[in-house]
Amino acid sequence: MAFADNLAGAVPDAATCTVMIVADDRYLTLHQRDASGSWGAGQRIGNSTGNGLDRQQTQAMRGRVLLRAGSGRSVTTRLTLPAATSEVLPQVVRNKVESLAPWPISEALWGYRLAGPPIGGHIQVDVGIVSRKTALALLHRVESAGAKISRFEVGHDGTGTQGIEIDIHGDDRRQLMRNRVKAAMSAVLAIAIMVGGYGGYLAYRTAAQTAAVEAAIADMQTALRNKDGAGGASQKLVQANALFARKRESRPVLELINTLSKLVPDGIWLSSLEIDGRTVTISGRGNQVPGVIATLESSDTFSDVNFASATQREADAAADSFSISASVEGKAENP
Predict the structure, then answer these.
(1) Among 119, 97, 118, which Cα is nearest to 106's?
(2) Rounded to the nearest 5°, which phi and psi values hold at 291?
(3) Nearest 5°: CA angle at 157, between 153 and 162?
(4) Lowest mean pLDDT among 18-27, 102-111, 246-255, 310-319
(5) What are the φ/ψ torsions at residue 327 (nearest 5 degrees)?
(6) Where are the beta strands (DSSP E) in 181-231?
(7) CB 217 within 8 A of CB 223
(8) How far is the C-alpha of 87 from the C-alpha of 38, rounded, in Å?
């Protein structure tokens, strides 16, 4: 699901991190970014296995924390490749990692970055590789002490060089976003099924009402033919004509649904539709709700459009819930 992967986002930039922990082959060293944006002097906080690191020390690690595996724990190298490989660079680098890593590819984590613009038809790529077991153990030890790691890098032990980012939390972050997208799609599908079923019910009810009106007209016409006396016949005729006029001027429910579908703007979702004589009430949620009233008023189908109840803001959905009523205009007579 590429869409979900895009929503999952990327690793924070190193420039936004305020704390860096460098793990060389012997010690863990803590650096904090000073007011000028540079890394301050290192403070030793544990040995190579993480022993000695405790929660009291990690209280200073507020904000985004960068964890770097130094040269004693990782492998870094620079590759020179044809510029044409830029379009398939991840696949090319992965093939190189298989021959460069001292561990099987399934047990390694790796990342890369361009060292600069193409020169003479070639590009230079810095590649960093670390053992998956080493990286996860180091990450677990630091986070167990209370620090929350925002970015993981491999590189040199000092602070004067730029590390190579490895998206160590990427799979978890993408899976979480995929689960959220799947849940949202399931909810949308359920709503669509409900709306479809409600539309079918309205169509059935309309057909039943139409059949009832036609039966009533037929009964009245029969009564008129069998009724003796002009007075009784006139009253039945008046009722029959009234029913016929109502049927002729009323708009079918399916026509109202189609009209609403065309008039309601994008970003507005309808959850219910009620029709009572010539009054229709719609409920739903979305943004820019006042625009719905203006749109319905400008149509030839609806008039007297107004809120049926107060609009409420739904903070979780970042949308307003609303209920709007309107009068349905009769069908225009053919010239």
Answers:
(1) 97
(2) -65, -25
(3) 50
(4) 246-255
(5) -90, 140
(6) none
(7) no
(8) 34
